[in-house]
């Protein structure tokens, strides 16, 4: 019987700094090739490594064995974790001209707002970025994309034509040998209380663009902090001799 044990050998950095540098190399590679989800996922992993090592008292310079000065910004880390794992809300502000609405601003909110101007604002629930990772290949030939988290149908299908949802996306059900559309009118879509993991490409593109735009705002400074931390862990300290010690040595 053949031995099915894996034959590959994987090396693992022994020092914390080397482990962080290795992870940052992966992060920069995914960023260079615009693999956004892999970039974000590895940055979350890098943050976790640093925070766990901090808790264990391991964030010390390799040469002086003193704790390093740079730390991750906890508020930024919390916001990145919420965007990735929990989600938030999208506040869209409109200008009204001649009975028409025009989008003038979109803002990611980490909490549901206390006050809303219902004439000029809408609040939309946003899924976690992790949940937007596609479960199948993204292609314009496929009308609906399977994602990892269920979202309200009234949001996912809000800007779609009911006929398109029936004929192209095949959102219909069978009863007594006949097929009927799930949504006959726009009102049926907006009043739906159900959730779905199969979303149109328009919703997928718009939502991931919003989430990654907010992610980048907090993620870029955190990435720079990670590089600074790794360098502080590995760089020899410059030893400065005090003037008092210089004098005492000079008087010998």
Give a short overview:
The protein is an alpha+beta fold and 252 residues long. The protein contains 8 helices and 7 strands; from the N terminus they run H-H-H-E-E-E-E-H-H-E-E-H-E-H-H.
List keywords for this structure.
about 250 residues; alpha+beta; three-stranded antiparallel sheet; two-stranded antiparallel sheet; 8 helices; about 40% helix
What are the SSEs and their pairings?
Elements lengths: L15 H17 L3 H20 L18 H13 L1 E10 L2 E10 L11 E6 L17 E9 H4 L5 H6 L4 E4 L2 E4 L4 H5 L4 E6 H34 L8 H8 L2
Helix pairs in contact: 1-2, 1-7, 2-3, 2-7, 3-7
What does the main sheet amount to? Answer: 3 strands, antiparallel
Measured as a percent range, the helix fraction is 40-55%
Radius of gyration: 26 Å
The strand order across the widest sheet is 2-1-3
Share of residues in strands = 15-25%
Structural class: alpha+beta
Please describe what this structure looks like:
The protein has a three-stranded antiparallel sheet with strand order 2-1-3. Helix 1 packs antiparallel against helix 7 (201-234), helix 2 crosses helix 3 and helix 2 runs parallel beside helix 7. It contains eight helices and seven strands, in the order αααββββααββαβαα. By secondary structure, the chain is an alpha+beta fold. The chain has a domain at 16-83 and 219-234. It has helices spanning 16-32, 36-55, 74-86, 153-156, 162-167, 186-190, 201-234, 243-250, and strands spanning 88-97, 100-109, 121-126, 144-152, 172-175, 178-181, 195-200. The model is unreliable at 239-252 (pLDDT under 50). A hairpin with a 2-residue loop joins strand 5 and strand 6 (178-181).
